[in-house]
Amino acid sequence: MGKYIDLTAENFNIAKEGVALVDFWAPWCGPCRMLAPVIDELAEEFDGKAKICKVNTDEVQDLAVEYGVRSIPTLLFFKDGEIKETLIGAQSKAAIADKINSLL
Fold first, then answer.
1. Is 29 assigned a catalytic role?
2. What terms describe the molecular function in GO for this protein (predicted)?
3. Which uninterrupted H or E stretch holds 83?
């Protein structure tokens, strides 16, 4: 069963291997809370194919600054360490899945 990966500065390199979605979010953010169940579903669907990750910007502000995240939720799509796509704001599951599939 797939589960998303909580990323911190210490383990962020996980997202730089293969294909990864990184969701920058915060607990107080309404659109982020709306997106949370979608992220959970994607983690299960893409288990073994792509890493589905989350960064709590309240706890790991340095990563948000490093990647230029000014609005949340921000979704960064990595392939082999490079950011290939960015989505800002709540998105449909289909839109996110399409971006992940395009990188596989």
1. yes
2. protein-disulfide reductase activity
3. strand 82-88
Chain-wide mean pLDDT for the chain? 96
Instruction: Choose which CATH entry (3.20.20.190, 3.40.30.10, 3.30.1950.10, 3.40.50.150) describes domain 5-102.
Output: 3.40.30.10
Calpha distance 19→52 (Å, rounded): 9
The structure's pTM equals: 0.95
Residue 22: which of 77, 65, 92 has the closest Cα? 77
The catalytic residue among 15, 20, 32, 69 is: 32
- Where along the chain do its domains lie? 5-102
Indicate if 53 belongs to the active site: no
